[in-house]
Amino acid sequence: MASITLKNLTKKYGNTFAIENLNLEIKDGEFFILLGPSGCGKSTTLLSIAGLIKPEGGEIWIGDDLVASIEQGIFKRPQDRDGAMVFQDYALYPHMTVFKNIVFPLEIRGLDKNEVVRIIKERNEIARIKIVRLIKDINEIARIRKEKAETESNVKGGDETAREAKDEEDIEWIFKDEEELARIINDKNELARMAKDKKEIARLEKIRAETTSNVKEADETAKEAKDEEEVEWLFKDEEELARIINDKNEIAHIAKDRIEIAKKVKEAADRLGITDLLDRKPSQLSGGQRQRVALARAIVRNPKVFLMDEPLSNLDAKLRDFARAELKKLHEKVGTTFIYVTHDQLEAMSLGDRIAILNKGSLEQLGTPEDVYNHPANVFVAGFIGTPPINIMEGILIEKDGKIGVDCGHFTYNLASESELKGRIFAPEIIFGIRPENVKIAGGEIKEGAIIAEIYVIEPIGRENIIHLKIGEKHLISLTSAMQDLKVGDNVSISFDEKRIHIFDKKTQLALDPNYIHPWVNYGIARKDQGDLKGAIEAYEQAIALDPNTAIAWYNLGIARKDQGDLKGAIKAYERAVALNPKYVDAWVHLGATRSNLKDFAGAITATQTALKLSLEQNDARSTAMAYYNLGCYSAGAGKTLEVIDFLKKAIKIHNEYANIAKQDASFDSIRSNPEFLDLISMS
Amino acid sequence: MKLHFNRILLYIILIFLAFVTLLPLWTGILTAFKSEQDLILTTPVEFPLSPTLDPLIETFGLMARPIMNSLVFTITATILSCLLGSITGYVLALHAFKGSNTIFVLIIVGIFIPYQAVLVPLVLIMSRLDLYNSLGGLILTHTAYGIPICTLLFRSFYAEIPKSLIMAAKVDGAGIWTIYWRIVLRLSVLPFIVTAVFQFTNIWNDFLFGLVISRGVESMPASVELANLQGGFVALWNLQMAGTVWYTLPSLVVYLVLGKYLIRGFMTGAVKG
Questions:
Q1: Tell me: the pLDDT tens digits for A322-373?
Q2: How many whole angstroms separate alpha carbon A413 and alpha carbon A451?
Q3: Do the Cβ atoms of A105 and B273 come within 8 Å?
Q4: Which residues of A touch B172 (CB under 8 A)?
Q5: What per-residue confidence (pLDDT) applies to B233?
């Protein structure tokens, strides 16, 4: 049991990065999934943890054990890391039986020698106590019997000779056992004592046999019911003796590690229900059985961490569903950290406590299955998770009649919760996403203003129908109940589940999903909208306290501080935000503006130039024009008249070029009609 | 009916080919039982008029010691070169390291070095090592000369062992030697037989090294002794053929015993899970 930590893990193949600066913290006992398309670096990550691949940079911790640190020159071999692995092709040793396969890791690592000695001693002690107890019993029996025999006048010696012969055999057998014991245990004193005990047993056995025979004779004559009871008791004792001899054989085996190992193997085999297969070779097993054997081989050693590389992908579909459930159960029973690599999002969703979605060697999102499904961090995650896949459309955020809407070309969808995205109007190009099950098809008459779609194809998949819809050229998938009566070619009105829409920034591909942003930040924004600046600042500070690396919280904190009049505090917050996310255009813009308010024009120009650079990179006309305009203003403030003209000309040029895009944006027009702007123009 | 006819034609061709193949063996064995008189009176393919064991008995006396010599150094060198080739092939195939391909190429170059090119340095080194005219010298030479081809054969076989098997063993705690001993070696029974038969035949048939390194009876290989049976003035075919029968016997036994494995080894050459 251990947690796993990866710090800045990097692995290159040639010039391409298989993993680039990967940071993960996997909790103790977690079922952790590495999910991604092929070539995303998930297997490389797993093999790095196992020690089968040497990374180019970063650190790997298994529990408190630093197993790889390239910077410190530490690299532990796989055999020195306490991990077990299950491979896609199971990698069973073809020449060994199932038993040998499972026992292999135990044999190789070996039981601790001291442990073996301890087990042997323990067993010897138990055996000795049992023997002593038995001797006492036998003595007691013998005494009683003798008394009885003596008092019974008609008791005669029976079949004594024959019994003695049998006893001699027994003694010989016991001595044989002792020889073996002597060879194995190598403990002369112990052995001597055992031998003594056994000789004693042998002697007592003889006596007992004698008395038994006597008593039997007596019984035959006397036919006493009471005696019969006692004879029964005597036989029970014989069983006890057999058990002790059995125990001693066990001791002999343990000396060769076998019993303990066999027990562990049996335990593992029992857990996976393959006890009947232990004598078979892997080639005699079905795919599902092989997979179980591979799992048994992994769990038999009780490793700190289980590493699984697509263990189910070689099974057929039906078996896979079953094996998935079994695997989940196994994790519950074993309780160890599981790290599981897969490209199958269904497996990931159903098995994982948390899922890390990788793409091209970097982490796209880390979260619970519910998180990554309902709140995908970016377009890639949204598209990768879910079948049928999410509907993705490019669109523009527009503001109409004070409401925010998404214009996807052929239709416009009005957002109910407008406040969170209001700030995005300066860069409105977005990607709109809606999962098929959240696209509702309304029956009946088409209402005024509804989104109208044509039913293109209907795919029945049993319980549900996959409906392919067309809105003009746009293709949309809806997952609806098979009960709904729909016909191909029908025009229907569709609606989206408001709480389930996903909006991503087109440039960064990142989610603008209000739910994904820190709730404290949202809380702050809401408070600010209500005019409660103090409360808003508190909320942002709370967000920062929870996660100081949230750029958006720092940014909002900056805005709130500025509104409060704390310009210096605002600048600090903006600076923090841009330090955390150097591509945060808004933060740079505000940083510039706030600096200019403090008459720090040089600083304002630097910040705005960064904003300008980013806007140009992102090909964002509006932000670019705004940045030029701001630069013009700040240059004016700094007294650089020549540059003012230059910047403003550029601002106007870009504005005119992209006038069509900017049409919906009243804010720029307001800038143009701003008297200050006119002043500047006339000034220059 | 046409199929039937084809069958018959096929068998006729096969019988003819078998006949051509077995003819030398036939004449050889027959000649080994002929007296000097029969040599003159009969053609090589005819049965002897009065079959005799004399040539076999006579040559046995001559060949016994050389055949023992040959058996000793051939078997030893075969085992050693297979083992070393297996280890080298294992490391090169499954534990690739920086420069392992270069090393592999350098080893393979050894296959193409003609025997004649190394004769002088070989004799010099052998006499320096005090191994000249000794079985030890022959063992060392044949082992060294066998390593490249053995490495090549084993490497190509081991390259087909799934990588995951080796990775699994590593994770299970096995080191490089444990993996070799507990897994790879156990999976290479067939390649061992194939390579061993190949090496055995090669070394058994070698004449040049034997001729150069051995000088006396204590290390004389059978191949060299067989050549000596040729005689200076008269070609005593019956003795030569009798010697050949003795000489061929060990190879024949090896092929008869291991033949089926050999075919299987050539056919599969791969591990089936």
A1: 889 889 998 998 889 999 999 998 899 999 999 999 998 888 888 899 989 9
A2: 8
A3: no
A4: 79, 84, 104-105, 108-109, 297, 301
A5: 72
E-only strand ranges, A191-287: none
Which superfamily does CATH assign the domain made up of B63-267 to?
Answer: MetI-like (1.10.3720.10)
Q: For B132-169, what is each residue's pLDDT tens digit?
A: 989 999 999 999 999 999 999 999 999 989 999 999 99
How confident is the model at residue A159, as a pLDDT? 47
Structure-token match 């995650």, residue found: A381
- CA–CA gap between residue A353 and residue A348 (Å, rounded): 9
Q: Please indicate whether, in this complex, the C-beta atoms of A94 and B182 are within 8 angstroms of each other.
A: no
> Under a CB-based contact definition with an 8 Å cutoff, are residues A366 and A354 in contact?
yes
Model confidence pLDDT, tens digit, residues A370-386: 989 988 888 999 999 98
How many Å apart are CA A369 and CA A349, to the nearest integer? 5
| Pairwise CA distance, residues B177 & B91, whole Å | 10
Q: What is the pLDDT of residues B198-233, one digit of tens each?
A: 999 999 999 999 999 888 888 889 999 888 888 767
The domains of chain B are located at 1-52, 63-267
Domains of chain A and CATH, by start: 4-110+283-367 (3.40.50.300), 125-256 (no CATH), 391-505 (2.40.50.140), 519-683 (1.25.40.10)
B40 touches chain A (CB under 8 A): no
- What's CA A340's distance to the chain center, in Å? 7
What number of other Cβ atoms are within 10 A of residue B21's Cβ? 10
pTM to 2 decimal places: 0.64
Instruction: Give the separation between CA A296 and CA A507, rounded to whole angstroms.
Output: 48
Residue A529: how many CA atoms within 13 Å on its side-chain side? 12
DSSP label at residue A388: S
Query: Given the structure tokens 């998935």, which residue do they identify?
Result: A324
Whether the predicted pLDDT of A83 surpasses 80: yes
Out of A100-104, A236-240, A478-482, B259-263, which region has the weakest mean confidence (pLDDT)? A236-240
* Helices B237-267, B189-205: crossing angle, 10 deg rounding: 160
More confident position, A228 or A280: A280
Across the interface, whether the CB atoms of A85 and B178 are under 8 A apart is answered no
**CB proximity list for B215: less than 8 A, separation 6 or greater:** B132, B133
Q: What is the C-alpha separation between A595 and A603, in angstroms, rounded?
A: 6
B170 lies within 8 A of chain A by CB: yes
Angle ∠(A618,A620,A624) on CA atoms, nearest 5 = 110
> Interface pTM (ipTM) of the complex?
0.78
**Residue B73 pLDDT level (bands cut at 50, 70, 90):** very high
Kindly tell me the sign of the dihedral angle through the C-alpha atoms of B26, B73, B211, B84.
positive
Among A173-187, A302-316, A422-436, B149-163, name the one with the lowest average pLDDT: A173-187
Tell me if chain A has a CB within 8 Å of the CB of B183: yes
Strand A31-35, strand A74-75: pairing: unpaired
Instruction: Say how far apart CA A60 and CA A69 lie, in whole Å.
Output: 6
In this predicted model, what pLDDT tens digit does every residue of B93-117 receive, in sequence order?
999 888 999 999 999 998 998 888 9
B248 Cβ under 8 Å from any chain A Cβ: no
Q: Are A50 and A81 in contact (CB under 8 A)?
A: yes
Q: Is B218 on the interface with A (CB under 8 A)?
A: no
Could you tell me the two tokens for A369?
A: 């299955």
Using CA atoms, how far apart are residues A652 and A650, in angstroms rounded to an integer? 5
Which residues, in sequence order, are bridge partners of residue A11? A19
| Closest by CA position to A81, among listed A115, A109, A42, A102 | A109
- CA-to-CA distance for B200 and A541, rounded, in angstroms? 83
Residue spans of beta strands (DSSP E) within A461-523: 464-471, 474-481, 491-496, 501-505
Nearest chain A residue (CA) to B183: A93
